[in-house]
Amino acid sequence: ISDQKPLGCWSVKHGQILTCPVVCNFETHEYIAVHDDKVLRIWKNEDINLDKAFKATLSADVCRIHPLPQGGPLVLFRGGAVRTLDVLLEAPQQEIENLISGEAIRWSGAFMEGQQPILIFTTEKDGDFFVYIQKPKLGSLHRYKLDQQESSKPLCFTAHITNQTVTLLCLYSNDSVYQVLIPLHQDTAEEEEEKEEILSKSLLLNLSVSGAVLKGTSFVVLDKDHIAVLGSLAAPGKEPRECLTIWNTKFQTMQASKELPLGTSGQLWCYEEKFFLIHGKVLTVIMYKCETSSLASAVGKLKDSQTRDVSSFVNWNTLEDEELVVSFQSQESVALKAESRMNLRSRRSTVAENQPETLSVGQLLLNLKDASTYVLETELKQLMAKAPTPDLQATIGCVVTALTDRCKRNPKYYPQHFLQQIVETRDLSYSLCPDLMAVALEKKDMHLLQTCLERFPDIPEEITYACLKAFLSMSEAHLQSIDVNLDSVVCYIDVEFNNEEVKTEIVENGFSAEMDQDMCDTKMPKESQSRSDGESCPVGPQKAALLNAVLHSAYTETFLLPHLKNLPAGQAILFLRYLYYLYVKCSEKVNTTLPGIRCPTINQIMDWMCLLLDAHFTVMVMLPEAKELLSNLHKFVRAQVRFYSELNKIEGSLRELQRLNHLRESQTYSIEVLEII
Predict the structure, then answer these.
(1) For burial by CB atoms within 10 Å, which of 121, 257, 585, 634 has the most?
(2) For the whole prediction, is pTM greater than 0.85?
């Protein structure tokens, strides 16, 4: 979520369908999926091809897989049977019993009670609903029937276990939440023939407030006194609007609500005090905190909701007045912390406690919106100089956003040194200040772009490409007048003597002129060879340092390749010449590592060369000025392949020599001649 890049992607073959949600095994860090109902797949993060992953065909259709932090995954079959994954993998074709007849599973959940895994699921048949509680390790199963209600039916379920009692919560179509308490039985042989027990339910919560009714679609339990409900809030005479709400079940009050104008998928997930939901086309993450429930806070909350008091919660994406998030005072029992549309990193702990006569960050920035440049920068420096707090990173992101907003409103304003200082001394990311690099590109601030490329872990590929194009299009004469960090190039490009590179003795790693001439019938003139075979850097040190920053930037090939195809042919050839130069420089060293600080690695160089050739290969083959470069690159790579293949031939002899050295006594002096055949 934080980097906005797919870390892994796996797909089944054409015609195959994933038939239940993919889960992660907490113990082995493996992914588990089921396709076509019966085919089980297990793989790890480093596996690339799903078709080559572990495969087991089961004898019955799988309904759901439930991972447990300690007990291992539980597999629920559509017939109601449950197996632990370990037992199932011992004999994938084992017979799976059918425990439910004509019933459809509507919901299921897995829990740990002590050391025992417990799986609870609900079924429906002809309008009747049933609850099953199963302990796989003990082989026990208990079936209950829910008390019928003529006017409404359950829409969704959730449950939790406390003190040997299952609390099943049911959201009904009459806009109410009901509670069912089920004691966990101590299983004995006499219970096998027990009769079906009918469960009675009690009203827990009515989802209505001030005449408005919430038509819930899904809900989750937050703690013993609070639940969150996602649904459509309908008030008399008004259009229904989708909302995320938090309710106090103890005092029957709605504690907080947030409108979701872009619509949702109707699904709500909760994990580690964070809500996850689909809002429009993006994943939204909302942080929350539950405090101790009290009557005073519940009554106070009702009063606040009538007066529509606004607190200091800020949407960190923008700083406009209308974008302030409307919420309630911090003394309420439950607070929605902040919304993150696309990433979680920029939303870490964005709640600030209301202190007397202390402005929140959002209010301060709004007050400074029209302040003078001096006042703005002075106040922002004081804000950043405060003692570190949990939300300091988000605060600094707001500061940068305030500065970039002013830059966009006033083209003459650009605090270059202030921005550079913030980026160099603070742990920022692109998602915290998404407009910063766009403004730097507009102002042609190469030094700031270089710093951002080296420090930000989540730069979009489109921005990376824009920086690359800007660096390549900048003239060498103009770059010499710009302050650029040369730490990554000074150790392998000598900038003295009118920027002419000083030649040093080269110890080549598998490449020599004799081998080169032996492997290619076409001989190049000496002048062209010395110019294009990687011996001299095709760009100046400033441009080289900027290009090195691009090589360090993280990217996803699928997203970067379309942008690289738009790079002009001349710039693509120049970039490839520089990459070839770096490749040769790396190959001169035994450890294939360039000296210096933040220098590109051999893997980064090779990856970018492959990317560039993939994007422009047809164009480069047709261009006469690229022919010599491609030929030299081909010869160099072929020479290295031949060198390493020769090393592979003597690998066995070298291992034998190493073994003999271990066997020889260290006190004995001898001279041995080993013949390598």
Answers:
(1) 121
(2) no
- The residue ranges of every structural domain in the chain are 10-145, 363-443, 458-493+536-622, 623-662
- According to DSSP, the residues that pair with 65 across neighbouring strands are 75
Answer yes or no: are the C-beta atoms of 361 and 336 closer than 8 Å. no
- Convert the pLDDT of each residue in 362-396 to its tens digit: 666 666 666 676 777 777 777 666 655 556 777 77
The neighbouring-strand residues paired with 247 are 227, 254
Letter for the amino acid at 73?
A: P
Q: Which stretch of 148-152, 210-214, 270-274, 526-530 has the lowest confidence by average pLDDT?
A: 526-530
Q: For residues 94 and 88, what is the distance between their CA atoms, to the nearest angstrom?
A: 8
CA atoms of 263 and 605, how far apart (whole Å): 44
- Please give the backbone phi and psi of residue 634, each rounded to the nearest 5 degrees, phi first: -65, -45
Alpha-helical (H) ranges within 47-104 are: 85-90
Q: Which of 336, 309, 314 is nearest to 325 (CA)?
A: 314
Contact 184, 250 (CB under 8 A): no
Q: Which CATH architecture has domain 10-145?
A: 6 Propeller (2.120)
Say how many C-beta atoms besides its own lie within 10 A of residue 254's C-beta. 24
Q: How high is the pLDDT of residue 19? A: 93
